[in-house]
Amino acid sequence: MPPKGKGGKGGKGAASGSADADKKEKAPKGGTSVKVRHILCEKHGKCMEAMEKLKAGVRFSEVASQYSEDKARQGGDLGWMTRGSMVGPFQEAAFALAVSSMDKPVYTDPPVKTKFGYHIIMVEGKK
């Protein structure tokens, strides 16, 4: 990361340095969208059951179909989501996650709590 004190000195530094870094924390070069899958459970206990299935090697899409309590039951696929279209904690987690595949998913552990419930989030792409 660039040194913190240098953003405000020159016009160039502020525009290309820390001002952008704050808005796009951890996003790849200009990344503003993520291809997301999730498992949403209202109850923490049910979400932890889903987490156990994932840890046991069950495919993410199968666990999502069994456990997720939202419209993304078709394997948990939410498609491409843009920055600003997701609730805060979900968005932060989604942009912080590494891109992974169904075969070797990288997901949020512990689940992310939002006003909708508990989410296990997986990112399949960034752009």
Give a description of the structure:
The two termini are 21 Å apart. This protein has helices spanning 11-16, 18-23, 44-55, 60-67, 88-96, and strands at residues 33-41, 77-82, 112-114, 117-126. The model is unreliable at 8-30 (pLDDT under 50). It has a four-stranded antiparallel sheet with strand order 2-1-4-3, sandwiched between helices. Helix 3 (44-55) runs antiparallel to helix 4 (60-67). By secondary structure, the chain is an alpha+beta fold.
Characteristic terms for this protein:
single chain; 5 helices; 4-stranded antiparallel sheet; 4 strands
Task: Spell out the blueprint of helices and strands.
Layout: H1 11-16, H2 18-23, E1 33-41, H3 44-55, H4 60-67, E2 77-82, H5 88-96, E3 112-114, E4 117-126
Antiparallel strand pairs: 1-2, 1-4, 3-4
Helix pairs in contact: 3-4
- Give the H and E element order: HHEHHEHEE
Could you give the distance between the termini? 21 Å
Major sheet: size, sense and barrel closure? 4 strands, antiparallel
Task: Flag low-confidence runs.
Answer: 8-30
Strand content: 15-25%
What is the average of the pLDDT values?
A: 83
Number of helices: 5
Short note summarizing the structure:
The chain is of the alpha+beta class and 127 residues long.
